[in-house]
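Hi everyone,

Forwarding the result from last night's run.
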Amino acid sequence: MRQSFGAKIFLFTIVLVLMVVGSITFKNSQALRENLDRQYQSSLIDGTQLLGEKIFSLLTRWDNRLSFLVQAVQNAPEKNRSDLIDAFLVSEEGAQSLQIFRLNQNNEMTTLVERVSPEHQPIPGANWKKALGGNEVRIMSHPQITEQAVMIRRLAIRGTQDMVLVVLGFELRVLPLATSEDRKVQSFLLDESFRDLITRKTYRSLVLVKSFVNKAQKLMQGDLGAGYLGELKTSQGTYFVAYHHIPGYPLQLVTHQDSSAIDEAIRKFLWDMVRWTILFVLIAIFFASTILRNLLSNLRELYAATQRLGSGDFQHTVSVRSQDELGQLSAAFNLMTRKIVNLLAAEHEKARLDQELSVAQSVQNTFFKENTFRNRHLLMTSFYQPASECGGDWWGHYPLGSNRELIVIGDATGHGVPAALVTAIAYASTHILAEQIMAGAFPANDPAEILRSLNTLLYQTLRGKLCMSFLALLIDSEKRTLTFSNAGHPYPVLIPANASDPRLGPKPKVPYRYLLQKRKSSCILGLEKDSVFYNETVNLVPGDKIILHTDGLTELENAEGKQWGARPMKLFLQAHAQEDPFTLCKSLMQDAISFNKNAKVFDDDLTLLIIEFKQEEIMAA
């Protein structure tokens, strides 16, 4: 059995080495080909662009000199014009012939001067004009001489409305093209009809792969100016193809480069990897036979240790005899047993903390009134859900006597245990302030003073590390007024019973309004020591509804990361403003939950409170 197991490990080692080397060889050969492809393509594009710039420089120099020459010919006596032409042809290498014709406004043509090879008859200007067509310049193969091409250029004459037609014949050898003798690099200079000036054949007849030609011509007709046309596969081989448009001239320089050098480099790389593979296999055989005995003995010890671990002996450890993989495995086993012991202790601690957190959640739940409250003048319904076990939202309601009700809502920064501690401070402080108001020891009609007291307490306790937005409302049912003060909390929403209520302004577009303060209070509670808060008072009419909420409602996000925000609130209230508080609360939360990316699981604490100011006789009924 031992020999069988050892043979399996030995065979596995050999197969593993072959697989690893084979995988590395395959990946590296692919990477090598990609890198070589990119290098060859980049080099080809740069080389084609460089040749194109040289051709452009040559043609531009001829154009500039011809412009000056035309002016000189116009101003020179007729007997001296031939000397100017001869001087130009001698100074420009490869320039063989030159004809200059004048076109008047009636499109009549006269020959100013011409110099052509004595072996050939001059081609009439009308033929050149027809060849030029409506273009300003054209470069084409010479109709009579195979080794030459012509540049036809229309130029304006200064001071007149006449034009000049210039025809320059030049040898093709002066064009800097990259064509090697072994045809591994070939250049084609294509005119506007994609005909090569050198071979006088169309690009389609030179490259018999129609799909590639169609793609190449489409790219060259675009506005890129230069680039890589792709990989051309023919019966003669595979070529990389790049092009460069000669700016200002109807010419495309196309270069083909043979990719056989890449295949040769790949073959050399594979042969080297085969030799390295043989060497690696021999080394693997040697080391596998050497370490096999130690491997088996150490594995037996580890197996015995796992049996003891399975029986519950978490204190047992194994000996670490070396720093190799087996030694590391033994050390890892010992580490695992220690971590198991620590994990059991951590689970015990976690269970204790979960129990304490559950108690904290139960305590915080006592801060909240029942979801529904009503008396002779008010009807309230609410929704509250924290993002975690303990939340940072809180609202409270305190009857103050004499038909007055204090309603508060707050949102501590963040959520979880820290935010819950802030709400606990606010809850206890507000409860004490409400008792002082009822005892006459605190101003009875001043919500801003409540905010000032809470701000001082939170700042002195937390020093700005934790803060809280807060809104305090005082409803006087006898006077039918609502007095409020806001410390960075979302604005309360007033929905009058009558959609044409004058409190909504003239010709209201929506059946609600936000209750804003004319004098803006300071920011949230606990952030600054000397924060300033003001009161604002609005009249109430029986049937009015007031919506209070925390930012957990408007900052709900859908799957695209878009927040619920003010616009969905506006659309909802336009459709549901006249519903009773219970239906309104239920509909609003259904709309928000359907928008939320996690449905009923919120990223932030969410609180919603809807208050309706009712007439006493209606409530009594």
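Residues 138 and 152 are 5 Å apart (CA to CA).

Cheers,
N.
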